[in-house]
Specification:
Distance between the termini: 22 Å
Bound molecules: 3-isopropylmalic acid, magnesium ion
Structural class: alpha/beta
Number of domains: 2
Strand order of the largest sheet: 2-1-3-12-11-4-5-10-8-9
CATH superfamily of the largest domain: Isopropylmalate Dehydrogenase
Order of helices and strands: EHEHHEHEHEEEHEHEHEHEEHHH
Largest sheet: 10 strands, mixed
CATH topology of the largest domain: Isopropylmalate Dehydrogenase
Length: 364
């Protein structure tokens, strides 16, 4: 199969982790006889510096002409004072919208080898396997009007949280369909005791749920869900929620399983999927070669599964990651007292090698 991708590595640690993710992808493509074709394009701060546009037309065209997009990260303090449309994040938000990627899947899975990395006791975190289904194109992120107006000292800022029934319905369906392939539980997270958006959310999710009698649907206010996520993470299956709640809870889920650096994501629903680690650009450690590339590498597994239906290939990468973690490989975010960290490149090399050796076993 031809795997035609656009890689938009972006800012901070984005290029470092994307490079390792592409090495893992190349290893799996070699092993399974696929042809990998990758175009690199700028996005975010990197694109702002080059063209004063966080999503240049050339980048968007390349993304639209490929079968899937692999993103590193966007965001840099250098642009903190820029107007909203000239911030790195604006490029990512526009790309999500242009790709119609309304469903953001963020798995948070506990790796037995990393039990000591979780701030939670082993008995609590063991067995955690959560799939956060985050609505990605609605809510306060995109709602109009939005503004900061008035004179310094008396300015007023406005954002609008907005959800249409159709937007809630389509993301709910994604969550229920995925739940059917898992433990058949959906927990819908909202703030229906305060927000109109959440009341509509709860009503529509309940309605969609009637078509999935085998799935157990629960509802939880977001504040309480945040608490349950650290108290009883292993009881979650699919967590369905709106854009901003999903942004917040997915970082928390990263902390629960030991490091945000482990979390991958798929943004799907449109014709072309977008795949990115959840962690962001981490400017404080950029360029040091110490970032954890596993979130990006596991995003490639999601890319193979969701954009190309290559489940064996995806599984091969996921098993390779588990294997290197079991052998004790740790980047700086994962080391405990007395352990020596390995670099971004070394972690990537070990995963690619594990992919290749699994291949050798398969064909032996
Ligand atoms: C994420 C990030 C983005 C978001 C930012 C960079 C716009 O935090 O993917 O979680 O808020 O969606
Ligand atoms: Mg986030």
């Amino acid at each position: 199969m031809l795997l035609k991708l656009t890689a938009v590595a972006g800012d901070g640690i984005g290029p470092e982790v994307t490079e390792q993710a592409l090495l893992a992808l190349q290893a799996v493509a070699d092993g399974f006889d696929h042809q990998l074709q990758v175009q690199h394009k700028p996005i975010g701060g990197a694109a702002l510096t080059a063209t004063n546009d966080p999503l240049p037309p050339d980048t968007l065209q390349a993304c639209l002409a490929s079968s899937a997009v692999l993103l590193g990260a966007v965001g840099s303090p250098a642009f903190d004072q820029n107007p909203p449309h000239l911030r790195p994040e604006a490029g990512l938000l526009r790309l999500r919208r242009e790709l119609g990627a309304y469903a953001n899947l963020r798995p948070a899975v506990f790796f037995p080898a990393l039990e000591d990395c979780s701030p939670l006791r082993g008995e609590i975190v063991r067995g955690t396997d959560i799939l956060i289904v985050r609505e990605l194109l609605g809510g306060a992120y995109f709602g109009q009007p939005r503004s900061i107006e008035g004179n310094p000292g008396s300015r007023v800022a406005v954002n609008t949280m907005r959800y249409g029934e159709d937007e809630i319905e389509r993301i709910a369906r994604v969550a229920f369909e995925l739940a059917m392939t898992r433990k058949r539980k959906v927990l819908s997270v909202d703030k229906a005791n305060v927000l109109e958006c959440s009341r509509l959310w709860r009503e529509v999710v309940t309605r969609v749920g009637k078509n999935y009698p085998d799935v157990k649907l629960g509802h939880q206010y977001v504040d309480s869900a945040a608490m349950l996520l650290v108290q009883r993470p292993a009881e979650f299956d699919v967590l369905l929620t709106e854009n901003m709640f999903g942004d917040i809870l997915s970082d928390q889920a990263g902390g629960v399983v030991g490091s945000l650096g482990l979390l991958a994501s798929a943004s799907i629903g449109g014709p072309i999927g977008l795949y990115e680690p959840v962690h962001g650009s981490a400017p404080d450690i950029a360029g040091k070669g110490i970032a954890n590339p596993l979130g990006a590498i596991l995003s490639v597994a999601m890319l193979l599964r969701h954009s190309f239906q290559l489940n064996a290939e995806a599984g091969c990468i996921e098993r390779a990651v588990s294997a290197v973690l079991s052998q004790g490989a740790r980047t700086a975010d994962l080391v405990r007292k007395g352990q020596a960290p390995i670099s971004t490149a070394e972690m990537g090399r070990r995963v690619a090698e594990a992919v290749t050796s699994q291949q050798a076993e398969r064909t032996a």
